[in-house]
Fold these 4 entries.
Entry 1:
Amino acid sequence: MERDDLIHDNLYSLSANHDEEHGKAIRKKIWQVTAILTAITIVEVCTGAFIKQYYEGVANEFWWIIKWSFIILTVVKAAYIVLVFMHLGDERKNFKWVILGPYILFIAYLIFICLSEASYWNEVFNGPGSITP
Amino acid sequence: MAQHAENITKEELWGGNGSPFRISYGKQWMWMFLVSDALTFGSLLTAYGFARHQADAWPIGEETFNAMPFLGNGYPLLYVALMTFILIVSSVTMVLAVEAGHRLDKKGVTKWLLLTVVGGLFFVGSQAWEWYHFIHGTHYGSVLTADGWAVVDYVNEGKDLILKFGRGVIVDGAAAQSLFDGATATMQGANLIENEYAPEVPQYANFFFFITGFHGFHVFSGVVFNLIILINVIRGVYDKRGHFEMVEKVGLYWHFVDLVWVFVFTFFYLV
């Protein structure tokens, strides 16, 4: 039986065996990305630990900036992991879209629908003229 | 990887003689599985967001998670930062194992894969401690006072009582003592029915247990997969096959587990 998990022609990614010289460049990239991911994590943890969301019961009015920077930094970290560590950046463009397109579409929809619905219920339970369940 | 030939015509690519993505069957379906698994985790985190947006108040990460093994309290987010770092490092050793596989360097693959397994076990162990601490709760528990729930603590070598109401509100001295004496209920730790971190939102602990538990189970299965592949590498299965693509496939799963943790870390501990 012909096995299609084996090397088909030299355009398949698994036949991308490389030599020592190529390996050196790839390893350099890996360590660079490691440094970036570590630096982002340190920044996140220091921000979370030292900047208070509330001080003596008073909300930090700039917290929304910090919250959004956390989310943006998380997406940056995720992009590095998926594109470099998981090598999606090295796959063909059609495959990248097959993986990322449907996922981003579904998740964006899910986040939108759930959070807007939850905000509505927050208004119902806690807003002005709210009902008590 | 980098040396994919791109000068291939559309007819050749989609002509049916091989994968139009030019990747192997196994790797493609590992990706498809990861997309579906990512939708599961995405749904869980979105459900968490639903509960959080609906609730009036939500516990603050740096106040809830501030303990270190052997050191006690007062180290906000430090322990979970350590866990995150362990998982990132094990992701790095995994990508180095994949790189060594591309050079058909069996010794290198063995070394890096073994380190990945060790990192994974460290992470699962850390999570066990985190759960133990979360279930056990604060040292003296919480009390329901006339002003609401508060965590009990003692300062100045255990002499002076203070009450922590969350959101940075701390009451001490005689006021704390009179509130403490008038307390009508006590609670310590967390379970599926109540938790002292968010007394008003009991589902907070349920989300914590379910999402970190589901992720922890993924890490555990990843360690098992890595071990199986490690045994195969040592036995020389992939030398005979001529490529180490199986390492790349379990590597994809392992990186995915790291990826999920990046999001869990943000939405449970930071934001």
Entry 2:
Amino acid sequence: MDVDKLPAGPHAVPPGEGRSPSTAVPVIVATNVSKTYGRTHALAGTNLTVHAGEVLGLVGHNGAGKSTLMRVLAGLEGCDEGAVTVLGREVPAGTRPREQDFRGVRMAYQETSLCPDLTVAENIWLSSRRGLPRLRWRRAAAEAVRLRLDEIFPGHGISPRDRVEDLSIAQRQMAEIARASLASPLNLLILDEPTESLGPDAAQSLYAYVRTVTARGGSVLLISHRIREVLSVADRVAVMRDGSVVEDLPAHGLGEDDVLLLMGAETAVRGATGANPPAAPRNAPRADTPVVAELRGATGAGLNGVGLRIGKGEVVGLAGLAGQGQQQVLERLWRPVRRDTVVHGTRAYVPGDRQRSGVLPLWTVAENLTISAMRTIARHGIRRPVHETAVAGDWVRRLSIRGGADAAMADLSGGNQQKVIVARAFASAADMVLLDDPFRGVDIHTKTDLYGLIRAEAAQGRSVVWYSSENAEMAHCDRVYVFRAGKVVAELVGPEISEERIIAVSFAEGDQPPPAAALASVPTEPTSTRSVAAPAAAGNSAGEHRHD
Amino acid sequence: MNTPRNLLSRPWIWGFVAALLVWAVIMAVSGQGGGQTVSLALSLAPYLVLVGLGQMLVVTAGPGNIDVSVGPVISLAGFVSVGTSSATGSVVLGILAGLAAGLVVAAVSSVAILGLSVPPIIATLASGLVASSATLVIADGFTALPDPGLRNLLNLRPLGVPLLAIVVAALTVLAVLLLRGTTYGRSLTAIGQNTRAAERAGLPVVRITALTYLASGALAGLAGSLLATYIAPTPDLGTRYLLDSIAVVVIGGTLISGGRAVPAGVWGGALFFILLDGLVNLVGWSTAAQNLLKGCLVLFVLFLAGGGSRRPGAAPVRPTRRPSTTAALPTPANTGGTTHG
């Protein structure tokens, strides 16, 4: 019932009225918040204040801690140190946040939080059941979400009775935003990359709605990689890096380049402190290098016409923001089942998620290390333990794996486990080694060892394809492909490779409209439902942006 | 090396300890010499061990992997084998036919599991159902008799030890070698610990898993062929072997969550179960009470083994480390004592 009370559109205060941050109690204050996952310091004593009636933009590169901060602000996770104050009520560190404290804080996720098997209305019940009647909730939820969708995204083409699974990516995002906004009271709406899968028109409507929310006294926290959008919508911009908010500036008068500089400055500093060793001498890419793998206009499963070549003995980097198609390229190279991918020779894979896809927990280091090499060492399916032991001992010494070949894998630290898994790939006879962002959360000494190993192996004629979310690592590559939205947007060779360059290219807002544009501009009337949804879905499948 | 302490840390020892205890109780209750009891147990256990070895391989392939079609396969293979050998007059052809029946059923399971992503328990249940139906069709009006020559061979007990027990013991040794010394065994163990990691390490997960189900089917087929000759082909010949085969695998120390196989333990578990049957018969319990006891035993062992938990530290049973390799390798000087966790 409360949901019904939420006013929709017409009597909203015109934009601009609520713009000056009020002097009332701030909606949310994060004071000195720290959060650690294992060895990773996701948040290192960060401060952030959101006032009532303002739009705060939050920018930062991959791994700067944006998502973790959002989770803490939304009450999904407690913090290790510091405190979060919601509307003057303090939630201290170390306690599990209680739901009632965070009732007015709502978050729309980038990967939507909707249950795919349920209808839109049923999803609304899941997150807003407090405001819905116990009986006939379905109708109330449907009515509420329909009104809200009409208000935010006119012509959305979504029926509350549609199953989420059947919606297009853009429609799912719309439903997600509507879901998050249906709360009473709505004190803070957190939007995590809301426009990444929306077309320009839908983005426009969304930002108009953001103004409506602030005019009603709510606040909006906008996280986006699209700096220009942030600057045009936000009142203030907070820049995060290395787990804390380092700059908090009024958006007015700030340029895109200024913000990029604030974000990229971190990388320049990091390079200068010597945290990363100077790049190894690169192989000059020669025209006569034999090609070991090639993608020709690979499309589908998150890729959109990707073409790339990997030469023998080359270290090829896949850079860009996380989730732009780099891992799909690795998947293609690992299992080349489609015709657009040509791979010569054998491959080995180094997973980034070592616990899930790397470690064999019951075995020793030696057993873990030689499992890939075993099959080439063996003769007619019979193992040759002496040879295996020699290989294992060799690699344990070469990478100075603590504990030795006979230690139980489960007893090793994360960094040493990662060494074993990298060694597993390089100990095999594979012609090409695929690295799936394997050095996240690995300490700097281990990284230095492994960078050296990669260069040494490449010098011996092995090809390495390396996806990394850390742009600094790309300095160790001969060639780097920068990805955005499933496309290669730049190919940097040799001296062109620099963090500043990669950041600039990955954030550059392309001239071409985002993939879902076709969808949003499908002329629709928000009357009845299936007939409208059908052409929208068709428009999307004709477009390129498809996740699975 | 094999100090008593070392021996007790071996997971397979407990089945034998339990078997010894039951044997002692049987001797105390019946007041007769124990030799005959052991000889009888040894003539019944090999069939269970054969099925158990196959089940062990399947269970080792990782969480969710189980073959519940072994019971129907045994019954089906019994009829197929006896029928073929009496029709052709060749015992070898008969056994091969029984084995082939097991392979066919396992092939159906494999296609369902790997091709259609059906959960193994459902897939093998379904293929088992197919096997049961086939059995009933064949059993209708079945008159062939088992080959007396083979039956005599199965009853042969030089020095009180049944010949079949020796053969199956040799097969168990082969299973140990298979698991330790071949790429197949290694790959299977790796897949059982972490299927995703094994796939990323380049192991042929699909092929290994399919081979494992086929091996289980073949072993169940073989056991059915021999059992039908030893006793007689009946439609419910294999019924009790379903729970028993899983139980002896678990009691034998094989991890129910996969990744560690203990072939020797299957013998301990099988002897324990056979002797337990004998004891319960001796004191005159009903079949229902027997099954109740067995079910509780399996649950108890699983409880002891940490509910099949694979988290290191949570499970009281840690992977065995071979002392010989420790001695053979140059251990780096005291790197924080991580090896002695």
Entry 3:
Amino acid sequence: MAVKKFITGNFYDEEVLFPAVKKARRAGYKIHEVFTPFPIHGLDKAMGLRDTSLHTAGFIYAITGTATAVGFITWALSIDWQINFGGKPFFSLPAWIPIIFELTVLFAAVGMVLTFCYLCQMAPFVKKDHFNPRSTDDTFVMALEAGDKTNDAEVVAFLNNVGAKDVAVQYKETGWWLGRYDKDTKRFEKKD
Amino acid sequence: MGLLRYESQVRPPLVDGDKDYHQVTEDICRPVEAKPSRLWWIGFLISVALLAFGILSVTMEVIYGTGQWNLNKTIGWGWDITNFVWWVGIGHAGTLISAILLLFRQGWRTGVNRAAEAMTIFAVMCAGQFPIWHMGRVWDAFFVLPYGNTRGPLWVNFNSPLLWDVFAISTYFTVSLLFWYSGLLPDLATLRDRAKLKWRKMFYGVAAFGWTGSTKHWQRHEALSLVLAGLSTPLVLSVHTIVSFDFATSVVPGWHTTIFPPYFVAGAIFSGFAMVQTLLVVTRKVLALEEYITLEHIEVMNKVIILTGSIVGIAYLTELFMAWYSASPYEWYAFKENRLNLSSPYGWSYWIMMGCNVLSPQIFWFRKMRRNLVLTFFMSILINIGMWFERFVIIVTSVYRDYLPSAWSTYYAPTIWEVGFYMGTFGLFFTCYFLFSKFFPVIALAEIKHILKKNGKNYKEKMDEVEKESLTEFSEKHGHDHGA
């Protein structure tokens, strides 16, 4: 992760944003990210993002929970310390279903939320560079990556052409760092 | 694109007034960013006072033991477990609204889900107090957990409904909290980016976990919400089912019935929606959010109330019929003499329950009544009184006369500390709710923006023209293909 150059455009309407995303891809620009104040269905497809596999992770956590519950209760009650509850068998699976179910749900939910936070690199005291604070309010911000060879003027013209407002060249850190939002902290201090 | 958002004019708008995205942010963030009103302070201080009284009551119980309560030989479960079941029941509406209605694609849930989820979490916190303090030696509360202990190892009884409860309630609390908080993250980021004061930037900056709103994150967020909703749906049904097992798996007449799980779940949703109404009728007024929590929302929830109230009514009658039809003299005695008989010691509680839960909600068959705010507020309180009595009836009238008539004589009435404990949980609940309504957006910002162009009043009005077009005209004008 490092500081990179981006050219950002601000869209005031998602109906302008969609064609712009498609045109940007067709024109061969690399879309770093599109920031939106709420989820826009189909935007991930339009940007060419692959589907998330968070569901699969959730399934794996769920069966881990099931296996843990079945395994542990079986071991505790029918192997480690057998207790006779009203003459019922030591391995009384039907009576364990409620706890097996609860642990399945618990493992899946906790696991998925932690995975979500890990994948999105989110945690308390995590700070990230924000391209435009309005993107959590009412506008949609598209950030195009720009290298050394990029003709900035051309990209700026393109963004203006597809309907973006407040087009700007920005240098932003792409990763995260530990910091607070009330202080202007940067991940890397410039040495020169 | 615009027309993909089309929704028939038959459905009334869910957001009133002339709104755009920024206006939504302004409206919903205003109560958070403004100074708390005098009304807020009064309410908050009353809640804290109640909480303090609750803490005193619990302290008395811890010092002197459960003897401070009027529990007796046959009534080992009195007010405390009644309150426990009551609060757990109230804690069901939030997850129902946020999870089940998400799966059913009910757009109106967006106006009320955040507050209802918060309510769920606070209600479950209150519920948890009762079994914990009822243990008497509360410092040994961790005995309910299956840990490798020094006495054996002797494990907890996994076959016991009381242990199922431990797992059900703690899982429910954890999952509800995760669901609520993960939904809050984007809204906290909105507050963070609007913040002007230093402490606000700090507080919401930490709370929002560094959310940026990138498309990839939203994609994962959507997947997470959907799967959590899918998990919470059976979870919410399982929790009150398991609570009902506490009774149903026993052999006490009045408890030993197979109808309990669905009957308890319906009752939980019934009382939960009533509590949502109590809170939202006031919240929308005090925070001036009438354009987001509209009469439409209130009416829809009143429809859920009459549905679940009627299911509960059917359950009461079925239970009564089965008690008679079972030809079990003990079962029938519990119903006929301990409940139906108005002149029996607790007969009055059965009829309060019937009146509040079965008869009174029938007024909501009338549209005018469903849209009457004063009546809705009054009914929501009445229903929760009724639902409290339902649990009281189930618990006390089943056990106050056991198989040994010589043990029948004592009349159970709570002591001041039992009542104080209950009042204290109100204090806890409302203290949390007041803090929530001050520091967090009570309406899901991002979700309202998501439905705004489909369900907002000013956008819906523009769709009038589309309504007039014929189907062929429509497809010719707005048809498109999904190619690259």
Entry 4:
Amino acid sequence: MSWVNAVVQGILLGGLYALFACGLSLMFGVMKVVNLAHGDFAVLAAYLALVIVSGFEVPILWSVLLVAPLFGLVGYVVQRFIIQRSLDVSPLTTLLVTFGLSIVIQNALLEAASANSESLQSGILASGSFQVAGLHVGYLSVLIFVTATAVIVGLQLFLSRTSLGRQLRAASDDQETASSVGVNVRHVFGVAAGIAFGTVALAGVAFGMYSSFDPAAGPQRLIFAFEAVVIGGMGSLWGTLLGGIVLGLAQVLGSQIDPGFGVLAGHIVFLAVLAFRPSGLIPQVAQAAQ
Amino acid sequence: MSELEDRLNLSITRRTALKVAGAGALSLSAAAFLEACGLGGLKGTSSGSAGTITIGYVSPQTGPLAGFATGDNYVINGVRGSDPYKNGFKVGSKTYNVNIVVKDSQSDPNRASQVARELILNDNADIVLCSSTPEVTNPVADVCEANGVPNVATIVPWESWYFGRGKKPGEKFNWNTMFFFGLNEFKGCFFPMWDRMNTNKVVAGMYPNDADGNAFRGNFIPLVTGGGFKMVDGGAYTDLTSDYTSMISKFKAADAQLFSNCPLPPDFNTFWKQAAQQGYKPKLATVAKVLLFPADTTALGDLVTNIATDCWWSPFHPYHSTLTGQTAKQLADGFESSSGQQWLSSLGSVHSLFEVAHAAMTSVDNPKDKSQVMSKLQALSYTGISGTLDWTKGPMPGVAIQQPVGVQWRKGTKYPYSMVVVDNALNKDVPTNGDLLPTNA
């Protein structure tokens, strides 16, 4: 019974990881940018939600409606004015630039919000659960899992069905050809970053409710998101969902075997995928057929 | 994928490069340190301008540990304004001016030893005080021990300060002393509360695989089982684990009605929410290392209600300062009105550090003589805002023990949550002001 429970909780935890990872996956898939400030932007979003919740006294879920679009805007601006410029220099410069952004965000948050850990209070949502066949399933975990799945399905539909999605894929495949047929590549990249940052905001708020955060909490989140992306297959959104679930399962089942083995089990799966199937569980080639 | 590998390689190379650079910086500063030591040796014990006593103070004022030092500014301003510090220490017929130099460890052990060296070598500190966690107290104490400067530490479990720095029972540090408490006092504080609850005496233990967690696992669990309780060890989990399902299942299966831990704050936050979700509701939770300060409680919200912990200083302690004559309550109230923030236990400890420095330096012939001051510190016994601190009683040389009381967090009137003293088994001086209530009824 406890194994069944571990599987269920592992899959649900995977939803949180997938939500964290899909922005990273999108940015890499479209622009080949590894955003090292990904986790820090998520923490920044959580702080922003905290300010909105305490400032306007609105329920936490409402704050998402404000934080996510705002972060979309931030993403567009950051892409157009910071990341794109470094992309123009060399793809590797983006690593340094996003690493720098990560340090700036952490220290700015430390200055503005102090080192105290905070959490987004969601009352019964965070502490409540329902029972299915004797298993306790947390409302929040389910909500996060559903959100992650919805975001990834939505993104897939957007990429495959809309005109902007087609432009995005075109720009990702071949920038020069795309621009020669009238695609504004920079704008399109900005939109992709905007969408990615919107999902980062969702992930940050979800994490803020799930646990607590402080200005230095970002990098640890980046590691798990990164592992989920690599396990699933770089740049593949379905892969990211699967990668998140595999990582969550590995961690929870690992700690079921031995509590000290939980986080390590996730790392081992990550390493095994890198060693034996470096293109990930669902390689991007499969996505090209979308 | 090969591109990704390139990127990965690059970031790894970068990280290695940073590490190498860091090591280089370390060896550089070590060289500077050795050189400075040579100079210090030439100067001998006559460092510092005659007639002025310099007191150095190190604490984590910024960074992840900054919560501990929230009240430092207020306390030090108060100390500076007190009669002995403002008008000088009177020793025999002489009066010495006192200069306090404050340094920030930035929550970084390397930075802590660096600022301790600055205090000793640049500011010619006659004594160095330090507080809050082994990450500050241990490196500072090491620097003072190496340079022969008296040092007093607080807010660090004495085992981490003593055994953590390689001493065997009975041995003493030449230049280090401290006051706080240790695992035995956790026992003395928690066990009476456990006994008072009507439970099956099964205790859940959430101890991570880190220095504190392993100290609890190795030394506290034997105390628990020796005290007539049954311990269910949740296992040595890794810090920053995201899911505690297996541990919670284990505690539920064993019907552990008491709960004990010493986790990182975000881990307790995650665990406690998941425990509530998955229906693990211990009758009494007594936590260590987390929920010491009011700022920690807001992150948990109402789930913090009636969680018990230890408290070594509060406005309810009936003690007063040897420097200002203030009572504990006046010190706490003064902090609240000047900062708008809720009182915290470190106020009293930091104030006491300066009481200790004053007590030792005014009861020797020459406060500028470091060995005289040190011998006095090692045999000091005085009563101040933290109650009686007595270095003659042990448990180990250089350690004075405070006796914590059991407190529970409840909804407050002025602030969201406040500490209520519910058990004073270890320290009868402190009146209880509330009943011990079950964490989960």
